[in-house]
Amino acid sequence: MASKIFIDANVLLDFFFKRTAYEESKQVIELAVSNKVQAFITPSVVHIVGHWLTKAYGAARAKELLLTLLADVQVIDIPHEIALFALHSKIEDIEDALQYYTAKHHKVNFFISLDKQLQKRSISTLPVYTPKEFLKDFAL
């Protein structure tokens, strides 16, 4: 069975806007497109990425890009009790805590993010990797 990965909004934004980690982010997304990994995001990630895509390209193009992404990336959500747990966690950034514990709840194997603070707060059962680290250590 393919590894399950969570793709953080910052990775998708680097991909869509060809920012600093564009090449590595693109390769992570290509793993999902080629079914070498199962990729997941939350509605919050859709919202964040959709906001920035709409600002840059307009609503019609933003929707088109998101629909293309969602052909290969599954949206998962957080149950109430996991939201409470996340808010009581040591992760100070609320958005990061909710994303991270949603991924953990859905038994995702790897959390892919460019957020170094989140990486420091991760636990061994759900490690946080940058796209570059993930590709180096775990790419199939």
Could you please describe the fold and organization of this structure?
With 140 residues, the chain is an alpha/beta fold. It has a single domain, classed as 5'-nuclease (Rossmann fold). Helices cover 59% and strands 13% of the residues. It is built from eight helices and five strands. A five-stranded parallel beta sheet has the order 3-2-1-4-5, sandwiched between helices. Helix 7 links the parallel strand 4 and strand 5. Helix 2 packs across helix 8. It is globular and about 40 Å long. It starts with a strand and ends with a helix. 36% of the residues are buried.
Instruction: Give the number of helices.
Output: 8
Shape estimate:
globular
- Strand adjacency order, main sheet: 3-2-1-4-5
Secondary-structure element series: EHHEHHEHHEHEH
End-to-end C-alpha gap? 12 Å
Q: And the CATH topology? A: Rossmann fold
What's the CATH class label? Alpha Beta
Could you give the topology of this structure?
Elements: E1 3-7, H1 9-16, H2 22-33, E2 37-41, H3 43-57, H4 59-70, E3 73-75, H5 80-88, H6 94-105, E4 110-112, H7 116-121, E5 128-129, H8 131-138
Parallel strand pairs: 1-2, 1-4, 2-3, 4-5
Helix pairs in contact: 1-2, 1-3, 2-8, 3-4, 5-6
Keywords, please?
140 residues; alpha/beta; Rossmann fold; 13% strand; five-stranded parallel beta sheet; 5 strands
